[in-house]
Amino acid sequence: MMKIAFIAHDRKKEEMVNFVIAYEQVFEGHDLYSTGTTGTRIMDQTDLRIHRFMSGPLGGDQQIGALVAQNEMDLIIFLRDPLMAQPHEPDINALLRLCDVQGIPLATNIATAEILVKALDRGDLGWRELVDKYKPGTDL
C-alpha cells in the first residue's frame, strides 16, 4: 500500500478530478491524501476516501511536505498551473525541493502522472526501495 497525495491549482482541479476518475481502480486500496478543495472535489466524484489537509495557500502544501520530510509519502501528483502566479509559491518550491531531497516521485503534469500511475498499477514500485536504501542520513 502506497501513500499518494493529490494537489491541484485552481485551474487544474477539473483535470485532476477527471484523471482520478480514470484511474480510480488503481488508487483504491492506497492511502490517499490531498489539499482541501482538491480532495473534496475528488471525493464528490469518486468513491475514494481521502485524508484532506488544509487548502494549499493556507498550509496544505506544507502539511504534505512534512510527510515527505519524514519519508512518509510515496508519490505526489501535483498539477501545477505554470501560467498563473501563486501567492504561496515559496511553499510550493519547498515541497518540490523536499521531494527531490527524499527521492519522492512527483508528477506536475498529466503526462508524467499517467506514467507514474501506470507503474503503480503494474506494481513497479522499485523507487520505494531506492528511497529507503539511500535516504538522507543513511550510510551507504
TrEMBL record:
Residues covered by the MGS-like domain: 1-140
Residues the record lists as binding substrate: 9, 13, 35-38, 55-56, 88
SUPFAM superfamilies from the UniProt entry: Methylglyoxal synthase-like
Reaction it catalyzes: dihydroxyacetone phosphate = methylglyoxal + phosphate
One CC-aspect GO term: cytosol
GO MF entries: methylglyoxal synthase activity
Active site (record annotation): 61 (proton donor/acceptor)
Listed GO biological process terms: methylglyoxal biosynthetic process
Keyword RNA-binding appears in the UniProt entry: no
EC number(s) recorded for this UniProt protein: 4.2.3.3
Pfam hit, one: MGS
The entry's keywords: Lyase
Tree of life domain: Bacteria
The family this protein is said to belong to: Belongs to the methylglyoxal synthase family.
Physiological role: Catalyzes the formation of methylglyoxal from dihydroxyacetone phosphate.
Entry-linked HAMAP family: Methylglyoxal_synth (MF_00549)
Name of the protein described by the UniProt record: Methylglyoxal synthase
Name of the gene this protein is made from: mgsA
